[in-house]
Design brief:
390 residues, alpha/beta, TIM Barrel, four-stranded parallel sheet, three-stranded parallel sheet
């Protein structure tokens, strides 16, 4: 987005002066941004902040998603991924299946494994620790971004450990950072409706703080476009900003567009493209202590994600490969994109693609060793949940 700022909404005039002066916005400012119909002005301001930080660069990585099980005791209304253990479609991977998928990811050039799953009633914490140890032993060069705050809380409960000790065991096994899922909307009114059996927003933030204190960076998310109010979105962003002020442990913020299909909230209309772009822009403007804002193409579609690169986002996520959680909720995007496809999307948006690792270090493919062949097929070792013995 180029050219001079033009504002048609008078409420944005004083707010724009704060942005251009580098001043922190208030919660009232955040609400005004969400309520404004002057999308182009909001986007211009967000793009100004984005380009001050990152210029014309847009980041992506080569990553593979691994979801070890979709069996989950939480039964959240927002989720189409979780299953009871005895229903059709429930699965749990044997460890060798996880390692086979890891081998395939390495053969594809992955520098990151993104690992999240359901809250399985019969798997012990040791299963997950063995999973991490096995991946780290086999693929020490790959960054393991594993387990949401919700999963950490569950592991602590089933293992009768403190949150800190649970995180320390994960770190010792080889976890390098944590994803940002499960944050949804922090406000208790919303959580009671969409994820009543999931940890509270306060607990999610507390676990994130503990992770940061022991040296584990994490991402943060917000699931928008369901039953939340604009005020509750702003509250969510403010609580993340306050936590980041204290820990500086969040790497990236990812606004996640709600997909209602096949969930308990299937009657809720999907967010519009304007809502998605505005949410990304407001996130960039409010989260002044977050380095990166991600346009997650899996949920937004590649086309909207491209546009988001002019509305505050500086990251498109990655190649992904085998994303299941949002495709179960009706996402129609591909389950993965190649490096060439991602770079084409970025260049077509007028940006310069930069391959990164999880910690936003540049990846230089010319200095990396040749990619090894995959050592096993992904189908080897798959165990349906109904036949799992633990």
């Amino acid at each position: 987005m180029n050219g001079k700022l033009q504002i048609s909404d008078a409420r944005l005039e004083p707010l724009s002066q704060k942005v251009l002066a580098g001043e922190r916005l208030s919660s009232e400012d955040g609400l005004a941004l969400f309520q404004s119909h002057d999308l182009l002005a909001v986007g211009w301001l967000a793009n100004h902040v984005r380009e001050q930080r990152h210029g014309n660069l847009t980041y992506y990585n080569v990553n593979r998603h691994i979801n070890p099980t979709n069996v989950c005791v939480a039964h959240c209304k927002l989720c189409a991924f979780g299953r009871s253990p005895d229903v059709s479609g429930a699965y749990t991977m044997a460890l060798e299946e996880v390692f086979a998928r890891g081998a395939q990811g390495v053969a594809e050039g992955a520098t990151e494994f993104h690992i999240v799953g359901g809250l399985h009633p019969d798997l012990s914490f040791d299963y997950y620790l063995d999973l991490i140890r096995g991946l780290k032993q086999r693929f020490p060069q790959v960054h393991l971004k594993a387990f949401t705050m919700v999963e950490v809380h569950y592991y602590a409960r089933i293992s009768k450990l403190s949150i800190k000790d649970t995180l320390l065991k994960m770190k010792d096994a080889g976890v390098d950072s944590l994803p940002g899922g499960g944050a949804e909307i922090f406000h208790p009114r919303v959580r009671k409706i969409i994820c009543d059996h999931k940890v509270s927003g306060t607990m999610w933030l507390s676990i994130a703080r503990t992770a940061h204190e022991i040296g584990l960076r994490s991402n943060a998310t917000m699931l928008f476009g369901h039953v939340e109010t604009l005020e509750e979105r702003v509250d969510h962003l403010m609580r993340l900003r306050e936590t980041q002020d204290k820990t500086h442990g969040f790497q990236t913020f990812i606004p996640l567009e709600f997909h209602p299909a096949n969930t308990g909230l299937a009657h809720v209309p999907k967010p519009t493209g304007i809502d998605a772009l505005k949410t990304i822009a407001v996130s960039r403007l409010m989260l002044d202590n977050f380095d990166h804002i991600k346009a997650y193409w899996i949920m937004l579609t590649p086309r909207i994600a491209q546009i988001a690169l002019g509305f505050g986002a500086d990251d498109l996520d990655g190649t992904v490969e085998e994303e299941k959680i949002y495709h179960d909720a009706g996402a129609t995007t591909p389950e993965g994109l190649t490096r060439a496809e991602l770079e084409r999307l970025i260049r077509a948006a007028g940006r310069i693609p930069v391959e990164r690792d999880t910690l936003y270090n540049r990846v230089d493919r010319s200095t990396m060793p040749p990619l090894p062949p995959a050592t096993a097929r992904p189908s080897d070792g798959f165990v349906p949940a109904s036949s799992l013995i633990v």
